[in-house]
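Morning. Coffee machine broken again, so started the prediction first thing and wrote up yesterday's gels while waiting. Chain of 131 residues, entered below exactly as on the submission form.
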Amino acid sequence: MKIERKSHFRDQQDHQADGAIAPPRKMRRGPAEHLRDALMALAQRHGSITRHSERAWASITFAGARHSVELVFDGVEAVAAGEEFVACLSDHEFGIRGQIVAEANVTSVDHTLLPVPRLEVSVEVLMLNDG
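Came back before lunch.
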């Protein structure tokens, strides 16, 4: 007598009815990924994020995380977008679902002109859990 067991767990890859392997499911994106997207949108997609770290943050009434992000803007057009990014960051209204951006500050700016214009920007963002 042969006993066949059916698993309630799916294989690593889901198979469609025609036998083809279904495309992988999208990974769930957290607040850090949404913050990076928002910063890149504010930078008009001209910069690149070279470093991002996150530290848990809490007070008596709030919990969240403090994010440190470094961006680099290479070239004349990118540097102009970076300068606008620096000017707009602290007043920008972020729309990150489930989060409140309590602070967004530029902590350092390094601007070089030769051999190619380059702007390096460091920012700190305090995001609080909303809800």
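Confidence is low (pLDDT under 50) at residues 1-15. Going to sketch it on the whiteboard this afternoon.
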